Amino acid sequence: MDVILLAAGIGERIQPLSSYYPKQVAPIAGIPIMVRLMESFKEVGCNNFIVVKSPDCGEMVEKVVSNVEGAQVQYVVQDPPRGMGDAIRCVKEQLTELPSEFVLSATDVLYGVEGIKSMVDLHAHSGADSTLSLLYSSDNRFAKGHGNVAVSEDLNITQIIEKPGQDNILSNYYSMPTYIFKEDIFNQLDQIPPSPRGEIEIQDAIQFLINLEKPVQGAVIIPGDVKFSDVGKFHITTVADFLQMSGAYLSGIQLPPLDEFPTTIEPVLVEEGVTIGDSCFLGPKVYIRPGCILANFVEITESVIFENATINAHAKLRKCVVLPGATIAAGAKLTGQIITEDETLPLTS
Prior knowledge:
The protein folds into 2 domains: 2-230, Spore Coat Polysaccharide Biosynthesis Protein SpsA, Chain A (Alpha-Beta Complex), CATH 3.90.550.10; 250-346, Hexapeptide repeat proteins (UDP N-Acetylglucosamine Acyltransferase, domain 1). The protein is elongated, with a radius of gyration of 21 Å. It is built from 7 helices and 27 strands. The relative contact order is 0.12. By secondary structure, the chain is of the alpha/beta class. The protein has helices at 33-43, 58-65, 83-94, 113-126, 185-188, 202-211, 239-249; strands at residues 2-7, 27-28, 31-32, 48-53, 72-77, 101-106, 130-136, 147-151, 157-161, 173-182, 216-225, 253-254, 263-264, 268-270, 275-276, 281-282, 286-288, 293-294, 299-301, 303-305, 310-311, 316-318, 321-322, 327-328, 333-335, 337-339, 344-346.
């Protein structure tokens, strides 16, 4: 089965991080999120990819995708990015041979191999026209930012609403931005009018299928009753989500050769080219990228430190994202902050 990956957006909601790394290439524990996602699809036998990119970040996307061994990749340009439905229309307009069946996925999500495999397998055996990835949550805060569905006992989907709000919840099942469609969706999208925000909404296309009595199946891709506080482990919508996902994918203690070895609590990942002073303390959930300098007695917990940042002596960081080239003053004590070269902002979720 082919996979269409949506990589045209920059990620305005994760500014200022996306000024350096569009969210589809943001490094999650050392590996771009898009690469992790593609590797998961490869493990379930999906090796053919159609990547929808934009002129703004297309070169960066192609660079990271080139590192995915064994992937067959075609590129389509979406300019400007106008939603998932429009991205599918761009595929139709720019490719001469369209897939007869395909996965459509955002590139700011990670479900793990088992979640993807369960969805692909269910679709193959259900006879559904389309399959939607779902999570179950009794926390109605999901209704603010996720599509909500009405389902039958066997998870056939009978209605979908995008971000219904807490007063219009259909059920405790919410859709995630990964879908499986058959090729007739390419023609059906031509019948969907733009939404008030000018986008061809994929939820409108799905409801159109339901109204035509096409079987639309739901597949729970994240097990259990998902807590709203755990959303960042599998979907990046804020910088806080990025920090949470990065911590979730770290494991063990990974340190390059260093002149001074810090005290560590796993998981910690320090890449090559980092200088660490005396009596530093790192962990848990710390990721430090190349070119950084940590002076003496620095303490860092649950944080990501990007390239060429300088953390001066006796600074203490907890739940912070330090962006490329930033400097932390000696003795600073920061919690829940995003630090750039020019300003410090609250890390909000």
